Amino acid sequence: MPAPKGDSMRGLSVFISDIRNCKSKEAEIKRINKELANIRSKFKGRVCGDKMLDGYHKKKYVCKLLFIFLLGHDIDFGYTEAVNLLCSNRYTEKQIGYLFISVLLNDTHPLMNLVISRIRDDMSSRSTAFVNLALQCVANIGNREMAEQFGSEIPKLLVSGETSDSIKQNAALCLLRLLRVAPDQMTDLDWTPRAIHLLNDPHLGVVTSAVSLIEELIKRNPEECKSCVPLAVARLGRLITSSYTDLQDYTYYFVTAPWLSVKLLRLLQNYPPPEDTTVRCRLTDCLDTILKKVQEPPKSKKVQHPNAKNAVLFEAINLIIHMDCDRKLLVRACNQLGQFLQHKETNLRYLALESLCLLATSEFSHEAVKKHQETIVNALKTERDVSVRQRAADLLYAMCDRSNAQAIVGEMLSYLETADYSIREEMVLKVAILAEKYAIDYSWYVDTILMLIRVAGDYVSDEVWHRVVQIVVNREDVQAYAAKTVFDALTAPACHENMVKVGGYILGEFGNLIAGDARSSPRMQFELIHSKYHLCTPTTRQLLLSTYVKFINLFPELKETIVEVLSQDSNYRSSNVEIQQRSVEYLALSKVVTEDILATVLEEMPPFPERESSILAKLKAKKPESDGLSSSVKTSDRIQQKATSANDTEKPPVAPGNNGTAEADLLGLGLITTPAPTTTAEASKAPPASTNNQFLADILGNGTVEAGSNAMVLSQPQTRSTALVDLESEYIRLIYRPQGVLFENALIQIGYRSEFQGNLGRVQLFYGNKSGSAITAFASKVVFSEICPTTGRSPLNLDLRPAPTTIEPEKQVPQVLNIECLVDFAEIPVLSINYSNQNGSNQLSLPLPIFLNKFAQSAPMDQPTFFARWKLLCQPGQECQRVAGAKLSFNLNDIKQRISGSGLSILPDIDPCPTNIVCAGIVHTASQQVGVLARIESNNFRVTVRSTKASVSDCICSILLTELR
């Protein structure tokens, strides 16, 4: 029976039916293998007298291969036949060819060039159907090569007046795909203004596709696409207003073009409210009409009708919130959403809560949202869907202010006892933030946090109890109350470990304030805390040991008891290193030092510095990063903006710190005599430091930020001198490493990267603005005062290229310093920086890690050569020998890596002692090259350096000693 020549493929239908009728996986594989063997034999040409395959049979067999692939089986043949189908003049055959290629072909396939050639032929075809097939294939595959090949041809199809509507629609979608996958290839966008005018096109498909394309273009260049706003408003007005007949034929359950309306409303959210009064009034009328239409009786009982209306409504509300300038619209939107809070549809209640979260952040609609507080609390407690309860909690958090804070916090605490486990941790953070932010009476704050620990102790993170301790330490008026409250809390039979941590810390600092009460005498405090000691984890026990030693200072009568506890084998010889170390050190401290020194060491903690709440930072970290597409993400972002003033209540006093104006040796080695980093603005007034220091990761080659893991004490108040000590180790690393962090505080981070060749060097400095405001009036210079006694000139030629005067928030700018070493030098250049921000002017003076060893290069040699040269360098002044003061653990591999990074080459098998290190190098200057030989003895950390120049020997010896630190 001859094969049918129509579009129906009986053989394919039979094959699919056979697959569906298979009773087992083995039967299916057997049938597929049989079919693959048949197809493979047909594709080989003349087999068993068969004639060459025509287009119909190729199409049928290619469809079978595609179906087999979709079942999850690999296909390794048939690609050539599919590409050949592209040459067919029959639409169905060409369509199957494009379908096969779009699904199975990848970017690196050897036939891709041939496919691109076929696509180009079809794009230039007079057949609209063929052009559409080619465009759809490009949109589906959408790789960089296609962007390069067709990036200039497809826009012509889009804006041409002779192109049909279907081609324009496909061309817009195709360009959208190419702009997303290869934006760097799509640089010629001269067609943008004409694409924007497609918003007036009468064809629904064309204008819908054009809106998506324009929205992508806005992300690349919003200023160039600004002309789309009046056009979008005009088109939206024609769709919404009944007096127009625009696209009235395109209705979906009595709603005119709902998807286009949603896209236009979303497009307008990329710009601020229109400045033109006429355009703004027209847009306001559109939004007002949308809100009115929701109140109209439904025109259909089918669910699609309210779904379409509500889709337009919620996007209109998002635009109203984005504009945030019309009080009447905001209040009306809030009232409309309030009606949805008790709707029978769960999805509608969820969306209403989500939109109300955004409205709660607006000053115009905040009070209107608060009217629904009772309904929202009821939703939090009674909703079955956990995602709706999550949104209700978010809304309560967003609508909270001083007038309702205690009520909302109380409701959230009450709900926490039965809350779903998936949202407990986030709710704990929100309760802690609200209690701190709106605490008028700090005794209420203490009660709230302790209740939080009782109710949800397992979900209370360290940031929460750290924060309550910081606030108690900073506020004298609440210290006695906090001590009494935590003491009472610890008397409960069941006490969470976080409560023990809070109680241990606060009683260790302020237990003396309640010691006059017989019920909380010193002995009672100690016995109560110690009764919890053996039930706690090692981390908590470490903190309690610190509490015990604090008690020695507060209550001398407890000294013998505490010494006995510290001397117990479970502490003094604990397998936990930190517990053992604390026990040994605290025991020695209590026995060796005088009472005056002990009182000084164990005195009350000073106030903590003012900083961003770590609880708020943790809550932000729990939210996903905004993608610009998810409305729930936008909701979270807007709510977080409301919480950024979590410390806007009365601030605790900040401990005074060193202003850093005195000159200091940064390394403390006598090697550098330059000013330490200084600043004139108070660091405590600076915006909070970002918790994600990734904006310099591309420069420093390190995407991680290491933090100390010591959990035994809370974050201590740090003065600026403390911050410099933290940078010392990083500065020493820059002696032998080419890149790293030169300086960092709450305002600015300075990255350093260098490369040296011979007597020339190039340093790149990267200034990153970590604050939330722009850095202005930025200026920098390099100061180097050393003068060579023989030449009367500076040993270094320093050429600092200009840097931008403004650094935007969370941005970085580079600056290049070119260096030429003329003669050897001992001093270090200093980078002087001046800049201003919203808190005032700032100054920094930073020693640059440009040492003499940066201009050294390795000099490999064998043992006889080394000793021959070593013996020649025996004249007075040619040798410098020093011994390190501290006996540190000697890590041979680590020391070798440091020396290799310093420009000297390690010479193996030179010294008879295998733990000693012998190295050699050549220091390059413009005037001469100085050979350097060095020997490091591990047993006493003695460094010996010999060279032909005394000043070079002395400098290299100092540098090597520094590296051993």
From TrEMBL:
<dbReference type="InterPro" id="IPR050840">
    <property type="entry name" value="Adaptor_Complx_Large_Subunit"/>
</dbReference>
<feature type="binding site">
    <location>
        <position position="56"/>
    </location>
    <ligand>
        <name>a 1,2-diacyl-sn-glycero-3-phospho-(1D-myo-inositol-3,4,5-trisphosphate)</name>
    </ligand>
</feature>
<dbReference type="Pfam" id="PF02883">
    <property type="entry name" value="Alpha_adaptinC2"/>
</dbReference>
<dbReference type="Pfam" id="PF02296">
    <property type="entry name" value="Alpha_adaptin_C"/>
</dbReference>
<feature type="binding site">
    <location>
        <begin position="60"/>
        <end position="64"/>
    </location>
    <ligand>
        <name>a 1,2-diacyl-sn-glycero-3-phospho-(1D-myo-inositol-3,4,5-trisphosphate)</name>
    </ligand>
</feature>
<keyword id="KW-0813">Transport</keyword>
<dbReference type="GO" id="GO:0030122">
    <property type="term" value="C:AP-2 adaptor complex"/>
</dbReference>
<dbReference type="GO" id="GO:0006886">
    <property type="term" value="P:intracellular protein transport"/>
</dbReference>
<comment type="similarity">
    <text>Belongs to the adaptor complexes large subunit family.</text>
</comment>
<dbReference type="GO" id="GO:0035615">
    <property type="term" value="F:clathrin adaptor activity"/>
</dbReference>
<dbReference type="InterPro" id="IPR016024">
    <property type="entry name" value="ARM-type_fold"/>
</dbReference>
<dbReference type="GO" id="GO:0072583">
    <property type="term" value="P:clathrin-dependent endocytosis"/>
</dbReference>
<keyword id="KW-0653">Protein transport</keyword>
<feature type="binding site">
    <location>
        <position position="42"/>
    </location>
    <ligand>
        <name>a 1,2-diacyl-sn-glycero-3-phospho-(1D-myo-inositol-3,4,5-trisphosphate)</name>
    </ligand>
</feature>
<dbReference type="Pfam" id="PF01602">
    <property type="entry name" value="Adaptin_N"/>
</dbReference>
<feature type="domain" description="Clathrin adaptor alpha/beta/gamma-adaptin appendage Ig-like subdomain">
    <location>
        <begin position="732"/>
        <end position="849"/>
    </location>
</feature>
<dbReference type="InterPro" id="IPR008152">
    <property type="entry name" value="Clathrin_a/b/g-adaptin_app_Ig"/>
</dbReference>
<dbReference type="InterPro" id="IPR002553">
    <property type="entry name" value="Clathrin/coatomer_adapt-like_N"/>
</dbReference>
<keyword id="KW-0472">Membrane</keyword>
<dbReference type="InterPro" id="IPR017104">
    <property type="entry name" value="AP2_complex_asu"/>
</dbReference>
<dbReference type="InterPro" id="IPR012295">
    <property type="entry name" value="TBP_dom_sf"/>
</dbReference>
<keyword id="KW-0254">Endocytosis</keyword>
<dbReference type="InterPro" id="IPR009028">
    <property type="entry name" value="Coatomer/calthrin_app_sub_C"/>
</dbReference>
<comment type="function">
    <text>Adaptins are components of the adaptor complexes which link clathrin to receptors in coated vesicles. Clathrin-associated protein complexes are believed to interact with the cytoplasmic tails of membrane proteins, leading to their selection and concentration.</text>
</comment>
<protein>
    <recommendedName>
        <fullName>AP-2 complex subunit alpha</fullName>
    </recommendedName>
</protein>
<dbReference type="InterPro" id="IPR003164">
    <property type="entry name" value="Clathrin_a-adaptin_app_sub_C"/>
</dbReference>
<feature type="binding site">
    <location>
        <begin position="10"/>
        <end position="11"/>
    </location>
    <ligand>
        <name>a 1,2-diacyl-sn-glycero-3-phospho-(1D-myo-inositol-3,4,5-trisphosphate)</name>
    </ligand>
</feature>
<dbReference type="InterPro" id="IPR011989">
    <property type="entry name" value="ARM-like"/>
</dbReference>
<feature type="region of interest" description="Disordered">
    <location>
        <begin position="625"/>
        <end position="660"/>
    </location>
</feature>
<dbReference type="InterPro" id="IPR013041">
    <property type="entry name" value="Clathrin_app_Ig-like_sf"/>
</dbReference>
<keyword id="KW-0168">Coated pit</keyword>
